[in-house]
Amino acid sequence: MTKDRLMTKAILLFVFSAFTVAAIAQKQDTKTQGFDPFSTQPDTTTAAVASDSLPRQDTSTIVKPYEKLVLYVDSVTNLITYLGVVEPNEINTNPDETTSSDSLYIRAKRWAVKRFTGGAKALFDVDKRNIKIVLNGWMPAYAYGNKYTKRNVGKYEFKMTIWLKEGRYKYQLSNFVHEGVKPNEGSVVRNYFEFYYTSPNSLKGNDLTLRYADKDIHRLIEDFKKHMKDPIIVDEEEW
Questions:
Q1: Which domain holds residue 165?
Q2: Per DSSP, which regions of 66-129 are E strands?
Q3: How many domains does the chain have?
Q4: Please, are residues 164 and 151 in contact by the beta-carbon 8 Å criterion?
Q5: Between 122 and 174, residue with greater pLDDT
Q6: CATH number, domain at 150?
Q7: Would 45 be classed as within a structural domain?
């Protein structure tokens, strides 16, 4: 091979190598935004895709604070109180008739004797004019597991006052005390409902006790109102 040919081949090889380097440099432009050939940072695009593929936390589920049972507290006595006024249309089966206060008094007294017989205290204290009855009532206390199970947790004591007028009456229950089951040793525990309602300790436990009691108190009131209604008289000529 002649010297001239070797020189020509070397020149062509040099030109070809220079052209190849220029092409690569153009393709990998170091001035392009975000490009760094010496960067050791991870591929953020891949990381972003992986992050999007993960399940997101459900921010719509917010734990609400515990809501206590709201009871009516008398502003004068500061006692938890259940009260109501029953009008003639809730008593009379015949809207054209009015039930006398004497008849309502007899019904209330009969109900009290039937409901509270066996109590240690006096059953009732009667106003001489037969327009007011004060009952020292009581009833068993239960804790409910479900609609089919319950266990005895003592008893509730309370005062019930009934005011009587022609064709209507008013009732009020207050002075509630929860007396627990008597233990084998020591004395029985007694707590006023107001203690359960205002104590900062054992918030949920005390509230649950009041919820159980509230359920039974409303049942007692409904039973009382049922016995205060006029009896249904069937006309023997209509059959």
A1: 82-228
A2: 82-86, 124-126
A3: 1
A4: no
A5: 174
A6: 3.30.530.80
A7: no
